[in-house]
Predict the structure of Fe3+/spermidine/putrescine ABC transporter ATP-binding protein.
Amino acid sequence: MLDRTDTPAALAPAAPAGHRLDMDGIRVRYGQATAVDGVTLSVEPGEILALLGPSGCGKTTLLRTVAGFIRPEAGRVLVDGAPIGHLPPGKRGVGIVFQSYALFPHMSAAENVAYGLEARGRPKAEVIRRVEAALAAVRMEGFAARRPRALSGGQQQRVALARALAIEPAILLLDEPFAALDRALRLDLQLEIKRIQRRFGVTAVLVTHDQDEAMSMADRMAVMRGGRVEQVDAPATVYDSPATPFVAGFVGTSNRLHGRVEAREGADYRVRLDVGASVILASPRGFAVGERVLLCARPEHLALRDATAETPESWPARLRISLPLGPALVHDVEAGATELKLHEARHGQPPAPGPVRVALLPTARPALFPAGDDA
Ligand SMILES: Nc1ncnc2c1ncn2[C@@H]1O[C@H](COP(=O)(O)OP(=O)(O)OP(=O)(O)O)[C@@H](O)[C@H]1O
């Protein structure tokens, strides 16, 4: 794979060289506790799949199962359709980049990158060639002789990435690789990994608890909770059409409004919100008239209205504060016991705190769930 860096053709767009990864019904238990609870996921050749979820949801356990450090109680890991469960980590064709750089401190950058190749008994000339190519791919060719302690955190992580890529892995596993880096370095390395991944068509799994990172890096994201996958979709789909209230709250900000279905109007529902408004909503789900529902509205789905502009589809509230964020305004609003966040374009000065009304924008497509899904 990295051999393509040997020629100017290395600058050509990615060839579809990636491999397919399947996780099929993976279950992992630590004693009595189930850490991964029957996860089935596929990663297409050349795709980055992010495993996103709160601390303890099983992301790292799932990744380590793919890597071969953990033997699952049930389920299979397959690469290009062939089970790899019987293979030890070193024989699985996976490259791993961890949160901590995990470089050998007494070895130079080049020696660190060479390590995996030498352990696999590759001929010396090939090792030299691949180390050079891997360091060049992460733009660290000028640092080959440096020890890790003479490199910044971001540079060390680039070397760790070069080491993972040098073995030409079928699958690249990234376990919170940016967590130890400050914001600027993090963005640098995110771009770097995305660039390399695109260029070489590497299939990758990225573990992160950072939704922005998952949004920007991943082709698809699997949102996990309690050892299970609640949704796997393209980032924009997860944001626009969350599968569960948990996903709606974990990915992006979600305003939760309870209500009751008043009537069916064609393909839409008229919902009476508890905050005191009646709104028309579309939903792919089916609801019965009278059913209790939960509306999850994004901050940009809602708008402030004048306190005197009473309409059936808006409700009374109090503006606590408006924060100008460049060209936008974030309003912090309370409607009885319900707290709401609104996001609007800013025109001039922020409005003063006090009585307002809040309306659901007619173009908004908030997610609607049965009230019982609210957990
Ligand atoms: N070696 C272990 N022994 C016992 N329990 C463990 C072990 N490793 C993880 N767990 C538990 O398994 C569950 C899943 O842990 P895991 O590290 O996979 O979650 P995670 O989503 O990666 O979390 P984080 O984002 O905090 O790294 C957690 O409840 C955790 O406490």
